[in-house]
């Protein structure tokens, strides 16, 4: 019977800033999804017990569970994903764990945020700009996100929260590889479909400062489907012309199936 007590959390906070809004919205989405999962499974159990007539929705759920697919009514309330049901459930529980960890210290953001574990990662990136604008008395509409890839591969290697912006993790490079020591894109290694990226620092800068050379503006998508799942461009260093990576279709993917 897991769910997030969002109202109680709001009461406990002295102030609700941009980051708090992001996590509260995430909890609301998770609560809706958890209610639907419980409701649909209970309904199916009653159908099996002969207490309810089997409906089309119940049959769809039964077939999805049997075929290891995410049921339609769950997917509608969730995030874009191409995972099979087994790995989707593991991913779901990891997302809930991140929110539970944040609830332990809601006035701060996590040391490193698992960006692809958020249903609405764009709102987190917007929050980085909002916090920076408030802190420096800058105009929000003149700010954009700018990424710097660190050499840290795991959360444990990070000492504390970023001093400018936020640390994120959970993205993989498709179509190219990342040279950790040289801190730049390089061509893919043989048989490597995806290259897990190190911890990335995302900060807000003015549009003028973001316009620098030797950078590939790498599109970032929620899933391998790409297209409508795009949500921002990350700045990755390159010694090759950026057009090389554009032609190769190099992108960052959050939810690798």
Provide structural commentary.
- The protein has 257 residues and is of the alpha+beta class.
- It contains eight helices and eleven strands.
- It has a five-stranded mixed sheet. It has a four-stranded mixed sheet with strand order 1-3-8-2. The protein has a two-stranded antiparallel sheet with strand order 5-6.
- Strand 9 (215-223) and strand 10 (230-237) form a beta hairpin.
- Helix 2 crosses helix 3.
- It is globular and about 65 Å long.
- The two termini are 28 Å apart.
Per DSSP, the total helix count is 8
General form: globular
Main-sheet strand order equals 7-4-11-9-10
- How many whole angstroms does the radius of gyration measure? 20 Å
Low-pLDDT stretches are none
- Amino- and carboxy-terminal Cα gap: 28 Å
For the sheet with most strands, the description reads: 5 strands, mixed
Task: Provide the β-strand percentage band.
Answer: 15-25%
Mean pLDDT: 94
**SSE string, helices as H and strands as E:** HHHHHEHEEEEEEEHEEHE
Q: Structural class of the helices, strands and pairings?
A: alpha+beta
Helical percentage: 25-40%
Number of strands: 11
Quick overview:
By secondary structure, the chain is of the alpha+beta class. Helices cover 39% and strands 21% of the residues.
What are the key terms here?
257 residues; five-stranded mixed sheet; four-stranded mixed sheet
Task: Lay out the secondary structure.
Elements: H1 6-12, H2 18-48, H3 56-67, H4 72-76, H5 85-103, E1 112-114, H6 121-136, E2 143-149, E3 166-169, E4 172-174, E5 177-179, E6 184-186, E7 194-196, E8 200-206, H7 207-210, E9 215-223, E10 230-237, H8 242-247, E11 251-255
Parallel strand pairs: 1-3, 9-11
Antiparallel strand pairs: 2-8, 3-8, 4-7, 4-11, 5-6, 9-10
Helix pairs in contact: 2-3
């Amino acid at each position: 019977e897991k769910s997030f007590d969002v109202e109680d959390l709001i009461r406990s906070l002295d102030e609700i800033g941009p980051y708090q809004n992001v996590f509260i919205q995430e909890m609301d989405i998770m609560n809706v999804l958890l209610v639907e999962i419980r409701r649909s499974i209970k309904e199916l159990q009653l159908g099996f017990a002969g207490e309810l007539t089997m409906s089309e929705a119940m049959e769809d759920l039964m077939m999805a569970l049997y075929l290891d697919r995410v049921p339609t009514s769950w997917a509608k309330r969730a995030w874009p994903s191409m995972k099979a049901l087994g790995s989707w459930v593991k991913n779901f529980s990891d997302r809930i764990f991140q929110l539970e960890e944040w609830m332990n210290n809601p006035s701060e953001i996590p040391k490193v945020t698992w960006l692809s574990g958020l249903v609405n990662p764009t709102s987190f990136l917007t929050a980085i700009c909002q916090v920076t604008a408030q802190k420096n008395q800058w105009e929000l509409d003149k700010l954009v996100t700018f990424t710097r890839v660190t050499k840290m591969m795991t959360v444990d290697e990070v000492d504390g929260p970023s001093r400018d912006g936020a640390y994120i993790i959970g993205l993989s490079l498709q179509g190219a590889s990342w040279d950790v020591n040289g801190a730049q894109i390089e061509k893919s290694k043989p048989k490597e479909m995806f290259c897990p990226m190190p911890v990335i620092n995302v900060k807000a800068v003015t549009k003028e400062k973001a316009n620098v050379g030797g950078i590939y503006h790498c599109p970032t998508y929620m899933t391998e489907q790409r297209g409508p799942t795009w949500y921002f461009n990350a700045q990755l260093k390159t010694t090759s012309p950026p057009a090389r990576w554009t032609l190769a279709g190099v992108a960052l993917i959050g939810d690798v199936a």
